[in-house]
């Protein structure tokens, strides 16, 4: 059985490690690598989309980074307990027209006993910014 350390139940230290690992993985923009942190039957809500299963996650992320260019993410631990973690995040990207955006949001994560994310619920809002206003370089 595949494990993704650290495993629940989480402590402050292990929750911080898990959040940093998620940030690092997403900043690779490698859908196949990222998807390995999720259960085969993972359940997501991302904005207004419902995504089910690791293969659907890969497909979703491929499409995401075809539109969200030069994506850069920062996550921050909000809360944790047992097998759940909540984060706040912001990320920046530009579209094919060169217009820049900063997205803000919150995610609620639930993990299985092997440290794989079983559920991910994300609420996200985009704000148009000027390239000069970027913070995440």
Automatic annotation (TrEMBL):
<dbReference type="Pfam" id="PF07080">
    <property type="entry name" value="DUF1348"/>
</dbReference>
<protein>
    <recommendedName>
        <fullName>Nuclear transport factor 2 family protein</fullName>
    </recommendedName>
</protein>
<dbReference type="InterPro" id="IPR032710">
    <property type="entry name" value="NTF2-like_dom_sf"/>
</dbReference>
<dbReference type="InterPro" id="IPR009783">
    <property type="entry name" value="DUF1348"/>
</dbReference>
């Amino acid at each position: 059985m595949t494990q993704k350390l650290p495993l629940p139940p989480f402590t402050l230290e292990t929750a911080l490690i898990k959040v940093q690992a998620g940030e690092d993985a997403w900043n690779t923009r490698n859908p196949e690598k990222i998807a390995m942190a999720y259960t085969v039957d993972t359940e997501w809500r991302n904005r207004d989309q419902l995504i089910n299963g690791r293969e659907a996650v890969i497909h979703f992320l491929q499409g995401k980074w075809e539109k969200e260019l030069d994506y850069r993410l920062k996550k921050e631990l909000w809360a944790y307990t047992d097998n759940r973690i909540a984060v706040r995040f912001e990320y920046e990207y530009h579209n094919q027209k060169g217009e820049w955006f900063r997205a803000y949001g919150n995610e609620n994560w639930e993990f299985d006993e092997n440290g794989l994310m079983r559920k991910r619920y994300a609420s996200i809002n985009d704000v148009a910014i000027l390239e000069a206003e970027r913070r995440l370089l």
